[in-house]
Amino acid sequence: QVQLVESGGGLVQAGGSLRLSCAASGRSLSYYAMGWFRQAPGKERGFVARISRSGSSTYYADSVKGRFTISRDNAKNTVYLQMNSLKAEDTAVYYCAADEGSYGSMWSKDYNYWGQGTQVTVSS
């Protein structure tokens, strides 16, 4: 079983950048595909990005494509989400999640483990 802890959230102005980290403990992250999801107030949790176990395959929601980059460092047991050109509509709690499959998924139901989330607030 793996435990996930997100960090790096905060308050940033529109157009700015943040890098979120998701640190794992309990088991090597190399066993999991990883995903980032977000949930804004009053909305359902939605897919942001996913990365395969090896890091060779990534996929993004259309709303963040070209602005966000997901990456991983299995040696450090950490997954990252680099967020550039942030918009007010990116404001949400961001969660990382681990999927025991190889490539990850767009669907939250496919993920086995979740972090507690980190708040990202973008001021316009």
The count of helical stretches stands at 0
Distance between the termini: 40 Å
Low-confidence stretches: none
Q: Give the SSE order as H and E letters.
A: EEEEEEEEEEE
**Biggest β-sheet, characterized?**
7 strands, mixed
Going by helix content, strand content and strand pairing, the class is: mainly beta
Shape: globular
Percent strand equals over 45%
Helix content: under 10%
Question: Based on DSSP secondary structure assignment, what is the total number of beta strands?
Answer: 11
Mean pLDDT: 96
Rg, nearest Å: 13 Å
Q: Keyphrases for this structure?
A:
mainly beta, globular
Structure description:
The protein is mainly beta. It has no helices and eleven strands. It has strands spanning 3-7, 10-13, 18-25, 33-39, 46-51, 58-60, 68-73, 78-83, 92-99, 113-114, 118-123. The chain is globular and about 40 Å long. The model has no long low-confidence stretch (mean pLDDT 96).
Furnish the topology, listing elements before pairings.
Elements: E1 3-7, E2 10-13, E3 18-25, E4 33-39, E5 46-51, E6 58-60, E7 68-73, E8 78-83, E9 92-99, E10 113-114, E11 118-123
Parallel strand pairs: 2-11
Antiparallel strand pairs: 1-3, 3-8, 4-5, 4-9, 5-6, 7-8, 9-10, 9-11
Brief write-up:
The protein is mostly beta strands. It contains no helices and 11 strands.
